[in-house]
Amino acid sequence: MIYDMRLLYRYSFLSVFLLLLVSCQPTGTLPTRVPVLTKPEEVAVVEEVAVETAVSIAIPGTFTPAPAVTIDPALNFGDNSPLGPTLTPSITPILPTSTPIVQSGPPTRTRVATRTPTPIPTPIDTAPIAPDPIFNSDYPVITGSKLSIHVIRNNDKGIMDFVRWAQPSTIKVVDDLGFTSDVREASPNTIIVGRVNQLDQEYAGLPEDAARAYVQRHLRKYLLNSDVDYWEGWNEADPNVENMDWYARFEQERVREMARYGLKTAIGGFATGTPEVNEFALFLPAVETALQYGGILTLHEYGAPEITFLYGGALPGYPAYPDRGALTFRYRWFYRELLEPAGLVIPLVVTEAGLDGIIGNRPGPSGYGWQDFAEYGVQKGWGNTGSEAFMAQLAWYDRGVRQDPYVLGFNVFTAGPVGHWWNYDIGPLLPMMTDYVINQR
């Protein structure tokens, strides 16, 4: 089934201008639906244990970079972007005036600089780096909270307040990239994942050609926003089994092309409830290549009307497990069934998470963002107010992802909303999120 409801909601009444601002796009098939096995208060979460376990990664053969290419100005400079960050912050960041509940400096871990960006997009030959993506000095086991935020526009003072005081493990930014330098200064150890919005995502032509054209189209923005650690490509990809081989090759070549300019890549970007396990198996070549070049995997996980919807449900061809789901914790199927046995454990960032009513065949009231389900969450006993109810559900998800050392963080959608994303706005919750993350240290 196609997300017809999402397609209608997002595009039927928006102008082309607003489409260029949004961060999500219509996506594909719904996950297999099964009854919810547990009530929120009965969901069992195993006591979190920080386990530092060495992993063995199988390294494919060395890739020989292609000869230097001439950059097509029509692809790279067509946006006439200025010689500076592509967008400046919407507001001047304001330093907090009150002392946080627990004042603490940045985490003791340090991140190793791997490149010195240049505003001149000259390709460089780059051999694959030795993968050790999780347990080295860059990616230790994270024992505190992995909760963080997704940002469409830096138009809320609470965004940078959250970054300063929470020192989040990750942050996701879309299009409004100029303030990433402020994020880097305020929280040096935060992993910044960025994406440049692009609406045309077609599985057409040779995937390698499409990947190189994609990188060249956005390369100037990548190089001018050097504080971004990993760049995503397509948003909410759902290639299905018919196109997964094409998409894997696309992502492989995108990783290689980015590496020629000293850039790191976040592959995948899969939509909520996708892909199926047999489809993800076809994506493993892209995971191998990403590991060669020090990349990460990203995907989205939402539930509705509660974040626990379909938690404990099975996927096609597999039995049900009490600690996996068809929506949230779907990633565990990919890791436990495929990536761990193959020695391909790749760092993961859930770049969008929370409540999203576009999910079909679900109970509860109509709605889209978390604010539409605030009253429902109170009725179900998650909290005394809608804000408390949503925060409690995020804490439940946080407790789970903290058990998986390969998960670097998850980003709640969204801060700084525009257009029709206002009912997803987490701006009012940012002080509560800040206190929560601080208290989890």
Structural notes for this entry:
The chain has 441 residues and is α/β, with parallel strands linked by helices. It has a single domain, classed as TIM Barrel. Helices cover 29% and strands 11% of the residues. An 8-stranded parallel β-barrel has the order 1-2-3-4-5-6-7-8, surrounded by 4 helices. α6 (207-224) packs across α7. The longest helix has 20 residues, at 240-259. The radius of gyration is 20 Å and the shape is globular.
Unreliable segments of 5+ consecutive residues: 1-126, 129-139
Shape: globular
CATH architecture type: Alpha-Beta Barrel
The helix/strand order is HHHEHEHEHEHEHHEHEHHEH
Task: Give the number of DSSP strands.
Answer: 8
Strand order of the largest sheet: 1-2-3-4-5-6-7-8
Largest beta-sheet characterization: 8 strands, parallel, barrel
Distance between the termini: 42 Å
> Which structural class fits the helix and strand makeup?
alpha/beta
| Mean pLDDT value | 77
Q: What is the fold named in CATH at topology level?
A: TIM Barrel
Number of helices: 13
Helix content: 25-40%
CATH class: Alpha Beta
Using the CA coordinates, give the radius of gyration: 20 Å
Give the amount of beta strand, in percent. Answer: 5-15%
Q: How many domains comprise the coordinates?
A: 1
